[in-house]
Amino acid sequence: MLLAVDIRKTFQSAERRFTLEVAFEAASQRVVLFGPSGAGKSLTLQAIAGLLRPDEGAITLHGNALFDSARGIDLKPQARKIAYLFQDYALFPHLNVRQNIGFGLQHGWLNPRARITHPQIDYWLDALELTSVAANHPAQLSGGQKQRVALARALVAQPRLLLLDEPFSALDSALRQRMRRELSELQTRLDIPMVLITHDPDDVAAFGDQVVQVSDGRVRENHPFAGYARSES
Amino acid sequence: MQQAWIPLLLSLKVAGWATALNLVFGVAAAFGLSRWRSGARDVIDSLLMLPLVMPPTVLGYYLLVLLGRRGVIGGWLDRFDIQLVFTWQGAVIASTVVAFPLVLKSARAAFEAVDPQLERAARTLGVSETAVFFRVTLPLAARGILAGGLLAFARALGEFGATLMIAGNLPGRTQTLSVAVYSAVQAGDDSTANFLVLVTSVTCVVILLLAGRLVPQHTLLKSS
């Protein structure tokens, strides 16, 4: 079993109460969590990454428990070796492209130097066509470049799983198609399992080897992609 | 005129120490307050902001009560033969307390403006909590902290009331610039007063000009 998630968490505020109750098992390398905004997809992804602590349940990756309330296991995000591609990319604005990509290679109290050289960084700069902007800061990059930097930064430490939070929503449609193709090729080449969340049926068509439908904090359907999403769009 | 340099240098020394202390304690308190989720937070915040609204002489009196030989802290320090009253170190403490809220307020606003998503991103990249603070949170808040530090320096440089209460007015030892101006005017020594006021004004302009250059430009850029 690649990834098994079975978690519950209740959010209580003065106005509303929201219960997240998600259970699915990833049988394929490409899993899409599909559902409307506010359904709890991002929360699920955060729980897998260790950024959100569920009230109870278990999360298992490659047979290792990342979280298990019954056994008192809750690995810190730092120890999970899971890459997270944030919706707005979350690039560090005070660091250049080189430093952003190399961020996870150094674990000390200092950021990498502006001219850091490391075979991994150079490999990713080259692979994602970022060499010409290596010294730029995130504010000087285009949307597609930002996404590539975020991908490189996430993949440089060779994670065990790649989580993507609405990765194409900030891009225009032409770029979106291109980045889908790039990501798809990259995933095949690296052979890294990924979980992608989206509310765009086109993403489901491109990546949904297995589709988990989430709505109102709950899993509705969980099955291999059979083509229904494409016919909707 | 020669004598005017002595209070100026003393003022710079006192204000420099007060700013350095505030950059450590004010920033630490600001970070704590910005991350702490508790009902007591507002009460603590109000207490820490008190020096901003209280008259400096009142603060000075409190400090005298605490740090004087018969005070709780002063009595304890006296056993180690450390005296703070009528010393420049006492002036540093007075200036630190008076300027503390300025650093606290700016630094807290700066910490709260840091996108938590960036800290989360750093965590998923395997970087420890301490390293996240020094590599992401602190650099992104640096501009606000620096602005607060400069305000604190300017405030400490002009400190009068609390300093006079605790450190007194000993020429060459605890007589800072603003106290020296007061003494000169009281003594009817207009030429010294004029000179001191001029020196103070020029110093302040230089500080402001330096401030504009010190602040790194790239921290202006926001993540998009």
UniProtKB/TrEMBL annotation, chain A:
It comes from Paraburkholderia aromaticivorans. SUPFAM superfamilies: P-loop containing nucleoside triphosphate hydrolases (SSF52540). Residues 2-233 form the ABC transporter domain. Pfam families: ABC_tran. SMART domains: AAA. The keyword ATP-binding applies. PROSITE patterns: ABC_TRANSPORTER_1, ABC_TRANSPORTER_2. One of its GO terms (molecular function) is ATP hydrolysis activity. Keywords: ATP-binding, Cell inner membrane, Cell membrane, Membrane, Nucleotide-binding, Transport. InterPro entries: AAA+_ATPase, ABC_SmlMolc_Importer, ABC_transporter-like_ATP-bd, ABC_transporter-like_CS, P-loop_NTPase. This is ABC transporter ATP-binding protein. The keyword DNA repair does not apply. It comes from the Bacteria.
Automatic annotation (TrEMBL), chain B:
The chain crosses the membrane at residues 14-34, 46-65, 85-104, 195-215. This is Molybdenum transport system permease. InterPro entries: MetI-like (IPR000515), MetI-like_sf (IPR035906), ModB_ABC (IPR011867). It holds the Pfam family BPD_transp_1. One of its GO terms (cellular component) is plasma membrane. Belongs to the binding-protein-dependent transport system permease family. CysTW subfamily. Keywords: Cell inner membrane, Cell membrane, Membrane, Molybdenum, Transmembrane, Transmembrane helix, Transport. The gene is modB. The keyword Membrane applies. Residues 8-211 form the ABC transmembrane type-1 domain. GO terms for molecular function: molybdate ion transmembrane transporter activity. It comes from the Bacteria. Part of the binding-protein-dependent transport system for molybdenum; probably responsible for the translocation of the substrate across the membrane. It is found in: Cell inner membrane; Cell membrane.
